[in-house]
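Technical appendix A lists one of the benchmark inputs used to test multi-chain prediction within the project. The record comprises two sequence entries:
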Amino acid sequence: MISKTTTSLYLLAVFLFSSAGTLSAQDNFANRYALGLNAGTTGIGGEITTNMTKKIAIRFGLNTLSYGDSGIYDDDEPSVSYSGDLSQTNFSLLADFYPKNRGFKITAGLYYQNFDIAASAVPNEAYTFNEGAVNEKVFGPERLGQLDVLVTYPRKLMPYAGLGFGNPVGNGSSLKLNMSLGLMYSGAPELTMNGDGLISPTTDQAVNFQEGLNEFEWFPVFNLGLSYRFIN
Amino acid sequence: MKLLRTLLLILIAFFAVTSCDLTKIEDAVDNFSIVIGLEPINTSATVVITDAVTGELVNAKVETVFSGANGSDVIDMYSDPIQQAEVDNGVLNFGLSNDVEADENNPATVSLRMSAPGYLSVTRNVEISQTGDNSYTVSLVRRDNSPAGIEVSNGSGGTTDVNGVTSEDVTVTISSTATETNEETGASLSVPSGSVFITGDGTPLTGTLRTEAVFYNADEPAAVSAVQSELLANSGDSVATMLGAVDISIKDSNGNEATSVQTSGSSAGKAVSNTGDYIVNFILNANTYSELTQVLRLAYISPTTAERFIIYKVPEVQQLDNGRVELRYLLNSSLFRSMALVYFSEQPCNSTLSINRNGNEGTFEYEIVEKGFFRSGNLQADSDKIALRNITRGTKSIRIKLPHTTIEQSIDLCGTGNPTIELPSPPPALIDSEISATLSCTNPSEKVRVTDIPAASILYRESNHSPGTPWRVASNLTWNYDEGTQALTGGSFTATGVETGTEYVFGVTYDNNFEKTTLTITGQQTVYTAVVDTDICD
């Protein structure tokens, strides 16, 4: 089922790109270019758009996003210091098909995406076994150890299909508002969990998380952007 | 409208495709717990600490200091090296570093120095001769309830002036009468007036002095077993046999304990020629003395260094009534913690005692007894041999404590080719039961978040037991860690010599925890659920 869907997306992308060349040869019009900025689930970035025919435009984009967070989780004992970094960079080559010569578009193409989330957790305080008992045992954070988690997509090249509004190289105002809504077939992300110290067996639970992540084979894309057509 | 309908269709399709099953990831997050992984310990020891008279577990706080050849290899359940441990439930569990591979030919030896409030301190050597769990029993003698052959006496040592100079002779006398022979043996200490008792750091004892003396009768196995083991340690290849031993302690009201004495003048009418001397007397059977005159030695343990010293002095001998003699030793300024009159057997032997189990499974305690000589240990569950080293020549009485009876046999271990003891078959009603336990926490939503409980053991005895019924140590204890649920889900062990339909108390012991439950044996397979209330639940 998945391979069929993936194949269909590739075929759609190939169709749109090959149609662009064919239709460009049939139509007789001037090429337009537009530069745009956008933000959304693929990060923040820009793209350049050019029209191949009256109904087809090609976009090349670059988006990136990095985000870090850290803090202390103290609902449990021992409290835990955590830190995490999300890193996302992608290149896209997309073909937009405007069936009505208006803003509505059908899009297909490819993303090349690096996406990973790295996080680590370290006990923030000593932990005491048998507290108050004769053989009370205190373990310092170093002895308890550390957990490291990495979530990444093994697949880098991701076919995309979607819909949207706004034609950066269409008629009318040079400044356009654009919206894209679609899906990348990313395959399931992979999770690796490493640990050391006494808490290292905690990493056995990576299996449970991986089972959950196996459900996430589609990467949702929702981007909003502004573009400016600078060559008429 | 057409555009709106299209947009709605698109949105529905979008969410239909991306709407993943979040249940699994939510479960993974909800069930996430920190799991503690403890390193497995290959060789461990369970020491059951009992009261020498009642046979019950000692519930006072027992402090154990580890020493001996493998004392530095002792670890706790977390695999951390430990030099001492405290337990207050009568069971001491410890492990040996995995670097140590103990077997019958190369046993590991750990010396346990145990002390507890109200009990006499004792030192025991345990020989660990196999991997897995090894069990031992150490009896502690309560000062106010000692077994036959151990006499405890507390008395006044008079008073001193502000400089610690005693105003009168300090005399400590103690004796014991053997149960079977009715022979009286004893010891005494005499320190002349005008002396000063001094602590290890040079402080004089002042004010009112108190004395405590403990005498160990060589005719009573319980007494011989209670003597500090280092006092009767081998001297080279020679093995010590004792004829009587005494511990003496002199303290002031501040709790300062004397380790040496400066003396002057005379003591109890007997001339003390050198400053710093004091007198120790031992009383024993005249015939025994005449047989052993040439080989008698005085062994003592220094209170400051805990070293054992041998004195080769020839004592003054005085004939007493009832066929006894008094041996009088003039000693110098160092006092002693323990002292024994001993002789050394120069040609001890090594012997392997074979045990024909005849269907008796499990761990059994054994004792090897002769006047002044005592060895004890456990026949481990998966062994049918007891390797004995440095046994004195002569016939020994060997006792093996089975669940249903104690058998006793006399054997000359050094003079018999292949010494063997045939155990009687166990009563038909007694079986070995493989017991499987499922662990759950008091809070049902929690689980036991450790991978293993290293160096743990299971003790058991009948619920309806008579006082002093010994706890037995179960064998083949294994724990089940389920990687799927990341929890310790249970364990299994073998309880030997149990009776179907009878209720037993089982207790899992680890790191000074002793969690008990009652269970009725249902047959060769018994299953139960143990609810644990411990901080390893999460």
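The CA atoms of residues 236 and 359 of chain B lie 40 Å apart. DSSP finds four helices and 38 strands in chain B. Comparable benchmark entries are summarised in Table A2.
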